[in-house]
Batch of 3 targets.
Target 1
Amino acid sequence: MDPAFRYRMATRMARRLRAEGRPLPLPALGEALGLRGPVAPVVAPLLDGRFIRGEEVGLWEWRYPFPHPEEAVVVLDLETTGLAPGLNEIIEVALVRLEGARRVAFQSLARPRRPPSPFIQRLTGITLEELEKAPPLEEVLFRAYPLLEGATLVIQNASFDLGFLRPALGELGLELENPVVDSIRLSKRAMRGLRRYGLDALSEVLELAPRAEHRALLDVERTLAVVYEVYYMLTSGRPRPLVDLAR
């Protein structure tokens, strides 16, 4: 069975359980996939680490929370004027910090020294007028930096964002020593055999709503949704901090 199809079907069953809010027997989960008749031989092999197996099927997320109580998590994303750190600039910073039941979101455009290319403007939907009115990057980073304190950073394709973020913080005398978890690496461990692990590809497999534009906070929310699923796939009843899963 194609791995992408398998995880897509499993996600549909998880969504059915969330909608019901209670464990269900295998035939009821089969209905979520449009199956009729004996469904156990088809449904049972689809159950990944998110599911509690028994006479009825439940979800581990009902037993323990994400993130782990001992870990604060910050999911972060940047938009930039191009792909080259040192040459291109950050034009948007967004993050969501999760710590226990507390959730804090941050998003701000940042005014670059040089405008982004027309391609970047089309990709992000960010206009030159918006950037001209935005605060300088230094101000944005000073506001965002306290939200990183003591947290595990979760970033999709972390090396790209860190290539921009670390030098920008360093120019302000700020260090970034947080542990970093790349959501691509986690996804490769949780969903083996996929052809692609970009955010769009993972969102398609997990049937997340398509994004209208390439913006930092939208990508943070999508990354968070992916990591939520992946966390339970990998922990499967044995909760651990994300930083431990990434080792």
Note: The chain has a mean pLDDT of 95.
Target 2
Amino acid sequence: MAPSPFHRLSATAPHPHRATARIAVGFNGDATLKSRAGELARELELPLATTGAADCDLQLVLTAEHLELRDCRDVRLGPVLVEFSHLDLRPYSANLSRRQPLARAFGKKTRVIVDATAGYAQDALLLALMGFRVTAIERSPVVAALARDGLERLAAQTGTTLTGRLELVNGDARALLPAIAPRPDAIYLDPMFPPKRRKSAAVKKEMRLLRELVGDDTDAPELLEISRGIARDRVVVKRPDDAPPLAPDPSMSLTGKLVRYDVYLARNQELKK
């Protein structure tokens, strides 16, 4: 596959997080895609299988249009792919407003952000288009591959230039953050939201599969503590509006429609108080 400005594997990272589900790479029947699918399989250290094979739980399928994740255990479920076309990404849209809680949580002095739990990279993309320089870290190689594909298609379809503004890295943020130099102004954490007590059919398949691929982020408190020792100014944590803070006594909180952004000062900033 062609080199991408949105992805690299870090040689200093430990082995990326692996899901417990059996995952394979496939391609959509077109023989011209076989070599690209094989290269992706080698990159992700996953087997290459015939599309629709019964010996895997999930299959990352390369088609002529995009990369998608299929659940082989339930053919009624549609595929998951990263698509940004539903977002209004015009320069002065509400999504890119510096007045919204996501942007305000970072303060006026922040220029460089590390999104340490990137997921499908939607927030990382929005922050980059707001004018921040963002490094997005995602520990699941499968999720990182889906995010990269979505970003590449966005760039190809719209001409959006993200080179130098957004970099996508696959690895464990706990190991990568101490090696980042210079240190970022802020670190953004969006750990998996606590599961609802009552399971709902309305839970989107994208989020259900994301949880299966990355787990419940039980190491989120540890990652917050590491981040507060590395960020120059602050750590911003995204939480459901009805969930307790990830750690006690955030410096401040900004509430959106369904989520809350808790702000924790970096350790060096706390010492100055």
Note: The longest helix spans residues 141-158.
Target 3
Amino acid sequence: MNGLPDYSALWLIPAIMLPIFLIGWVVQLKTRNASWVDVIWALGVAACGVLAAVLGGGDPALRLLIGAIYLLWFGRLGWHLLTRVVNDEDEDGRYAHMRQWAGGKAPLIFLLFYIMQASWVSIFTLPAVVIANGALPPVWAIVGGLTLIVVAWLGESLADRQLAAFKRESGNKGKTCRKGLWRYSRHPNYFFEWLQWFGYPLLGLHAVYGDLLWFAPLIVFIFLYYVTGIPFTEQQAVRSRGEDYRRYQRNTSMFFPWSPKT
């Protein structure tokens, strides 16, 4: 390690992100469109990952690497979400349903939701903070970690492009995408999002608290599988696509890519 550990990002990140999300909450009060929260979250993680790399006291090459990974991974995700929100005038169905369910309590419910999203930026940036204060791991760990992250980046990018292309075809309105990666998993984008987190423990092999990064894939899996990812997405898909999506559920693996049932 070329310098002393600098964990100032641990308090600086929430201090920056909380006001930004509160501004986003105020904006959605006026526009009644909370879809932008996903864009703020993804670009926030990208920016805070770079900030953690800048402030870190570890090996400069490792700091540059982790900063670039966060910028490319979450920057791509943010851009993808941004184009989707800009091209869709209506609020995301998940948030529209949440607004309808909350009724008169919607402002409070969304305030708590925005605060929660701000806290998740800090949680998802923790690997960058740890790695940015570490020493370079062995070559095999760097190659293995980068391979996992690159494969996951390509897989999620491909899944997003395939779904976007399917939605652009007017004849597919109300139908479920079963093309490409979506033939083998109902949520290939979430699967590859989860896969990338196995790369960070390898990059943090020689970092203080680096062993704790092995919990990252488990935490992300719980988030995606049980909390904010799949449950909300599946519920909205059933509401909007009905029996077509129920058939998709019966025939297609929910998370891990697998051959569909015939």
Note: The chain has a mean pLDDT of 93.
